[in-house]
């Protein structure tokens, strides 16, 4: 391919204002308390209790553990 290198590409090919919009969106996201972990790795204790209860007794009988896990996730910064 004998085209121009990407470094020398004309700035006119870029979408105007795209970087500005991305920057402001990232600032608004960053201002919220962002969870430090993935949701699957947060609150392993309550997750295990919840899962074990559901397997043994069914979801309807485990609302106490389900809610405890949700509260733990909320404390970690997740919106559940």
From TrEMBL:
Region (Disordered): 1-30
Binding-site positions, Cu cation: 40-41
Gene3D superfamilies for the chain: CytochromE C oxidase copper chaperone
Main location: mitochondrion
Keywords on record: Chaperone, Copper, Disulfide bond, Metal-binding, Mitochondrion
Record's keyword annotation contains Mitochondrion: yes
One GO cellular component term noted in the UniProt record for this chain: mitochondrial intermembrane space
Record GO terms (molecular function): copper chaperone activity; copper ion binding
Transmembrane segments: none
Subcellular localization(s) per the UniProt record: Mitochondrion intermembrane space
Entry-linked PANTHER family: CYTOCHROME C OXIDASE COPPER CHAPERONE (PTHR16719:SF0)
Family the UniProt entry places it in: Belongs to the COX17 family.
Protein name: Cytochrome c oxidase copper chaperone
């Amino acid at each position: 391919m004998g085209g121009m290198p990407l470094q020398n590409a004309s700035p006119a090919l870029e979408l105007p204002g795209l970087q500005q919009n991305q920057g402001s969106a990232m600032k608004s996201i960053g201002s919220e308390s962002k969870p430090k972990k993935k949701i699957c790795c947060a609150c392993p204790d309550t997750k295990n209790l919840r899962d074990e209860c559901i397997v043994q007794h069914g979801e309807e009988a485990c609302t106490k553990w389900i809610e405890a896990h949700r509260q733990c996730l909320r404390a970690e910064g997740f919106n559940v």
